[in-house]
Amino acid sequence: MESDLTKRRPSVIPGSLPGLPAGWAPSIDTVEEDVSDDEENNSKSYSSTTISYLPPITNYETKPYLTIKKFQYENPTSGQTTTMSMAHTYGICILNTEAEEIIACDHYNNRLLMFDSNTDGRLLQIFRGDLATPECVAPRPHHKQHIYVTKGHSISLYDLEKKKVIQKLGTEESGHANNRFNLPSGITVDPTNGEIYMCDTWNHRICVFSPDFRFVNRRWYLTRWQQTYHKVKPNFIAVNANNQCAVTCEDAPNYRGAVYVFDKMGYIQKIYDNDTRSKPIVDAKLSIPHGILLDDDGNWLTVCYSDPEARSVERRSNIQDDQDNEIISYWRGKDLKGPSGLAMKRDQTLIIGDRDNNSISFFKQQEASKSEAAK
């Protein structure tokens, strides 16, 4: 039986705990990661996985300028070229390299795919081997050839250069202990200390690990606000440099979904939801939100897997007269059928993995918006 010392109860609002001074919030010690000289030199410009600024979604074109759906693959052994496609595109990520290659989870084909993101979206490499039904991927800071992968009931550290799993946590069977999971999905890495945040989806919790997969005694469960008996499933997760963590969740068909914003210790800051009306919930139309981006100012963008009228939902802060007002915006990408994965390049190109259309779409900002941003 799990010890009470390792349990994270349903989260509470900072300052509401008895016996603690007003405004108290937990802090996280920064852990310095050993980086070789070559890796340090190569990663100075490309090490961060957080987004400092997220452009307004209204700045973007509604039609993609590039879509990856069918692609050519040349077998390096036989030299034969075949036309291939993806099956159930779920999680995607952008590598922290100069070329910013895209890694996509080709779920039902049991493989990872690497695509070019700068020119024609061509297929660069295929990765197989102990990658059955991959769910989500995230780059490892300061290690350009390493990515984290969730699949089955485990999380793995995969070496793209060696094309193999070099470290794994979890087993082939589901469980609820600190090192056992139940169909985990979304994953992200805090670049300040390398800690891994993972959605243990069917255990209804977020788990946090050190870079070497040690449980750091931080995890929390997701329940509906003021309805702790209703647990919900976290899908995707993002962190920023200002102690915030945004999580998308749902429990369809009964609960269409919400975006939860926590601090990195798991204490709730705010819930964005359209199914309930109790404070501190902010009204937002969300229908099975999946991928999410979070910038350092607390603005977030998510894609809704099951809402043809509002494919993307965005929260922005609008500071006027020293008051922080929130604006919720909706954006419809007519070419998207079931968006799920979400990523952004350094030039702020938006990339969406379409789970139902088995494709990856690229969206750029409108020229007028780019000019205004440059000013």
UniProtKB/TrEMBL annotation:
Chain residue ranges for the region called Disordered: 1-48
GO MF annotation, one: ubiquitin protein ligase activity
UniProt keyword terms in alphabetical order: Repeat
Start-end of each NHL repeat: 173-212
GO BP field: proteasome-mediated ubiquitin-dependent protein catabolic process; protein polyubiquitination
InterPro entries xrefs: 6-blade_b-propeller_TolB-like (IPR011042), NHL_repeat (IPR001258), TRIM-NHL_E3_ligases (IPR050952)
Cross-referenced Pfam families: NHL (PF01436)
Bias type Acidic residues, positions: 30-40
Descriptive protein name: Tripartite motif-containing protein 2
Organism annotation: Rotaria sordida
